[in-house]
Protein backbone atom coordinates (compact mmCIF):
# COMPACT_ATOMS: atom_id res chain seq x y z
CA UNK A 1 0.00 0.00 0.00
CA UNK A 2 3.04 2.32 0.13
CA UNK A 3 2.96 2.36 -3.67
CA UNK A 4 -0.74 3.23 -3.51
CA UNK A 5 -0.10 6.14 -1.14
CA UNK A 6 2.74 7.50 -3.28
CA UNK A 7 0.81 7.30 -6.56
CA UNK A 8 -2.30 8.73 -4.91
CA UNK A 9 -0.44 11.81 -3.65
CA UNK A 10 1.26 12.28 -7.02
CA UNK A 11 -2.10 12.01 -8.75
CA UNK A 12 -3.74 14.50 -6.38
CA UNK A 13 -0.97 17.05 -6.91
CA UNK A 14 -0.98 16.65 -10.69
CA UNK A 15 -4.77 16.79 -11.07
CA UNK A 16 -5.05 19.70 -8.62
CA UNK A 17 -2.70 21.64 -10.85
CA UNK A 18 -4.52 20.70 -14.06
CA UNK A 19 -7.87 21.61 -12.49
CA UNK A 20 -6.41 24.92 -11.37
CA UNK A 21 -5.22 25.68 -14.90
CA UNK A 22 -8.63 24.87 -16.37
CA UNK A 23 -10.23 27.18 -13.82
CA UNK A 24 -7.85 29.99 -14.78
CA UNK A 25 -8.58 29.48 -18.48
CA UNK A 26 -12.35 29.72 -17.92
CA UNK A 27 -11.92 32.85 -15.78
CA UNK A 28 -13.47 31.29 -12.68
CA UNK A 29 -13.29 33.16 -9.40
CA UNK A 30 -11.26 31.94 -6.43
CA UNK A 31 -14.00 29.61 -5.21
CA UNK A 32 -14.61 28.27 -8.71
CA UNK A 33 -10.93 27.56 -9.25
CA UNK A 34 -10.72 25.78 -5.91
CA UNK A 35 -13.77 23.65 -6.71
CA UNK A 36 -12.43 22.81 -10.19
CA UNK A 37 -9.09 21.74 -8.72
CA UNK A 38 -10.67 19.74 -5.89
CA UNK A 39 -13.15 17.96 -8.18
CA UNK A 40 -10.42 17.05 -10.63
CA UNK A 41 -8.12 15.75 -7.89
CA UNK A 42 -10.63 13.97 -5.65
CA UNK A 43 -13.64 13.13 -7.81
CA UNK A 44 -12.19 9.97 -9.32
CA UNK A 45 -11.03 8.66 -5.95
CA UNK A 46 -14.48 9.23 -4.44
CA UNK A 47 -16.11 7.27 -7.28
CA UNK A 48 -13.51 4.53 -6.88
CA UNK A 49 -14.06 4.16 -3.14
CA UNK A 50 -17.84 4.20 -3.58
CA UNK A 51 -17.55 1.21 -5.93
CA UNK A 52 -15.34 -0.50 -3.34
CA UNK A 53 -18.08 0.05 -0.71
CA UNK A 54 -15.84 1.98 1.63
CA UNK A 55 -15.62 5.51 3.00
CA UNK A 56 -13.80 7.67 0.43
CA UNK A 57 -10.21 8.50 1.38
CA UNK A 58 -11.02 12.16 0.83
CA UNK A 59 -13.54 11.96 3.70
CA UNK A 60 -11.57 9.81 6.13
CA UNK A 61 -7.97 10.99 5.63
CA UNK A 62 -6.56 14.49 5.85
CA UNK A 63 -3.80 14.18 3.28
CA UNK A 64 -6.01 14.46 0.15
CA UNK A 65 -7.54 17.81 1.13
CA UNK A 66 -4.25 19.14 2.53
CA UNK A 67 -2.45 18.16 -0.69
CA UNK A 68 -5.08 19.95 -2.80
CA UNK A 69 -4.91 23.12 -0.69
CA UNK A 70 -1.11 23.28 -0.71
CA UNK A 71 -0.98 22.69 -4.47
CA UNK A 72 -3.53 25.46 -5.12
CA UNK A 73 -1.66 27.88 -2.84
CA UNK A 74 1.61 27.24 -4.65
CA UNK A 75 -0.11 27.54 -8.03
CA UNK A 76 -1.54 30.92 -7.06
CA UNK A 77 2.01 32.14 -6.52
CA UNK A 78 2.60 31.70 -10.25
CA UNK A 79 -0.18 33.84 -11.69
CA UNK A 80 1.77 34.28 -14.91
CA UNK A 81 0.14 31.05 -16.11
CA UNK A 82 -2.94 32.97 -17.31
CA UNK A 83 -3.60 32.38 -21.00
CA UNK A 84 -6.55 31.78 -23.32
CA UNK A 85 -4.90 28.58 -24.56
CA UNK A 86 -3.43 27.44 -21.29
CA UNK A 87 -4.74 23.90 -21.80
CA UNK A 88 -2.27 23.54 -24.68
CA UNK A 89 0.73 24.47 -22.57
CA UNK A 90 3.04 21.67 -21.67
CA UNK A 91 2.62 22.34 -17.96
CA UNK A 92 -1.05 21.40 -18.22
CA UNK A 93 -0.39 18.44 -20.51
CA UNK A 94 2.32 17.01 -18.27
CA UNK A 95 0.41 17.51 -15.02
CA UNK A 96 -2.76 16.03 -16.53
CA UNK A 97 -0.80 13.09 -17.91
CA UNK A 98 0.93 12.36 -14.60
CA UNK A 99 -2.40 12.55 -12.78
CA UNK A 100 -4.03 10.27 -15.35
CA UNK A 101 -1.34 7.61 -15.05
CA UNK A 102 -1.02 7.85 -11.26
CA UNK A 103 -4.76 7.46 -10.69
CA UNK A 104 -4.97 4.67 -13.26
CA UNK A 105 -2.38 2.81 -11.19
CA UNK A 106 -4.12 3.43 -7.85
CA UNK A 107 -7.45 2.27 -9.23
CA UNK A 108 -5.95 -0.87 -10.71
CA UNK A 109 -3.98 -1.70 -7.55
CA UNK A 110 -7.05 -1.38 -5.34
CA UNK A 111 -9.08 -3.51 -7.74
CA UNK A 112 -6.37 -6.18 -7.69
CA UNK A 113 -6.22 -5.99 -3.88
CA UNK A 114 -10.01 -6.46 -3.79
CA UNK A 115 -9.59 -9.53 -6.05
CA UNK A 116 -11.63 -8.07 -8.92
CA UNK A 117 -11.51 -9.81 -12.28
CA UNK A 118 -9.93 -8.21 -15.35
CA UNK A 119 -13.13 -6.34 -16.19
CA UNK A 120 -13.33 -4.90 -12.69
CA UNK A 121 -9.67 -3.86 -12.76
CA UNK A 122 -10.17 -1.99 -16.03
CA UNK A 123 -13.36 -0.24 -14.92
CA UNK A 124 -11.99 0.83 -11.52
CA UNK A 125 -8.74 2.05 -13.06
CA UNK A 126 -10.61 4.00 -15.75
CA UNK A 127 -13.11 5.62 -13.37
CA UNK A 128 -10.39 6.59 -10.90
CA UNK A 129 -8.35 8.20 -13.67
CA UNK A 130 -11.06 10.11 -15.53
CA UNK A 131 -13.87 10.52 -12.99
CA UNK A 132 -12.61 13.80 -11.56
CA UNK A 133 -11.90 15.34 -14.95
CA UNK A 134 -15.34 14.37 -16.27
CA UNK A 135 -17.02 15.94 -13.23
CA UNK A 136 -14.99 19.13 -13.71
CA UNK A 137 -15.77 19.37 -17.42
CA UNK A 138 -19.48 18.88 -16.84
CA UNK A 139 -19.41 21.60 -14.21
CA UNK A 140 -17.87 24.12 -16.63
CA UNK A 141 -20.24 23.01 -19.42
CA UNK A 142 -17.84 21.43 -21.88
CA UNK A 143 -17.58 18.00 -23.48
CA UNK A 144 -15.45 15.80 -21.17
CA UNK A 145 -11.90 15.52 -22.51
CA UNK A 146 -11.96 11.73 -22.24
CA UNK A 147 -14.60 11.62 -25.01
CA UNK A 148 -12.73 13.70 -27.54
CA UNK A 149 -9.14 14.14 -26.45
CA UNK A 150 -6.12 12.59 -28.08
CA UNK A 151 -5.55 9.06 -26.81
CA UNK A 152 -6.56 10.12 -23.28
CA UNK A 153 -8.84 7.45 -21.87
CA UNK A 154 -6.93 4.78 -23.77
CA UNK A 155 -3.96 5.33 -21.45
CA UNK A 156 -6.02 4.28 -18.43
CA UNK A 157 -7.09 1.11 -20.22
CA UNK A 158 -3.50 0.30 -21.20
CA UNK A 159 -2.26 0.82 -17.64
CA UNK A 160 -5.00 -1.43 -16.24
CA UNK A 161 -4.29 -4.20 -18.74
CA UNK A 162 -0.54 -4.12 -18.09
CA UNK A 163 -0.95 -4.16 -14.31
CA UNK A 164 -3.49 -6.97 -14.49
CA UNK A 165 -1.10 -8.97 -16.69
CA UNK A 166 1.74 -8.45 -14.21
CA UNK A 167 -0.50 -9.59 -11.38
CA UNK A 168 -1.60 -12.75 -13.16
CA UNK A 169 1.97 -13.79 -13.99
CA UNK A 170 3.25 -12.91 -10.51
CA UNK A 171 5.57 -10.14 -11.67
CA UNK A 172 4.05 -7.27 -9.72
CA UNK A 173 6.64 -5.19 -7.82
CA UNK A 174 7.70 -1.57 -7.36
CA UNK A 175 10.07 -1.65 -10.32
CA UNK A 176 7.56 -3.09 -12.78
CA UNK A 177 4.92 -0.58 -11.63
CA UNK A 178 7.38 2.28 -12.10
CA UNK A 179 8.26 0.99 -15.57
CA UNK A 180 4.58 0.91 -16.54
CA UNK A 181 4.11 4.43 -15.18
CA UNK A 182 7.07 5.78 -17.12
CA UNK A 183 6.02 4.04 -20.34
CA UNK A 184 2.44 5.30 -20.02
CA UNK A 185 3.48 8.90 -19.37
CA UNK A 186 5.80 8.87 -22.38
CA UNK A 187 3.11 7.24 -24.55
CA UNK A 188 0.59 9.93 -23.63
CA UNK A 189 3.07 12.75 -24.30
CA UNK A 190 4.04 11.29 -27.68
CA UNK A 191 0.35 10.86 -28.54
CA UNK A 192 -0.29 14.50 -27.65
CA UNK A 193 2.74 15.75 -29.59
CA UNK A 194 1.83 13.76 -32.70
CA UNK A 195 -1.93 14.35 -32.34
CA UNK A 196 -2.81 10.66 -32.25
CA UNK A 197 -6.53 10.01 -32.10
CA UNK A 198 -8.71 6.94 -32.13
CA UNK A 199 -10.88 6.59 -35.25
CA UNK A 200 -14.12 8.57 -35.26
CA UNK A 201 -17.37 8.04 -37.13
CA UNK A 202 -18.55 11.00 -39.16
CA UNK A 203 -22.28 11.62 -39.27
CA UNK A 204 -24.25 13.36 -42.02
How would you characterize the overall build of this protein?
The protein has 204 residues and is mainly alpha-helical. It is built from nine helices and no strands. 74% of the residues lie in helices and 0% in strands. The mean pLDDT is 86.
Give a short synopsis of this structure.
The chain has helices at residues 2-25, 30-51, 57-60, 63-76, 90-113, 118-139, 145-148, 153-169, 174-193. The chain is an all-alpha fold and 204 residues long.
Low-confidence segments: none
Q: Characterize the largest beta sheet: strand count, sense, and whether it forms a barrel.
A: none
From the N-terminal CA to the C-terminal CA, the straight-line distance is 50 Å
Task: Estimate the mean pLDDT confidence.
Answer: 86
Query: How large is the share of residues in beta strands?
Result: under 5%
Number of strands: 0
User: What is the number of helical segments per DSSP (H or I, 4+ residues)?
Assistant: 9
Give the overall shape, derived from the CA principal axes: globular
The helix content, as a percent range, equals: over 70%
Radius of gyration: 16 Å
Count of all domains? 1
Structural class from helices and strands?
A: mainly alpha
H/E series: HHHHHHHHH
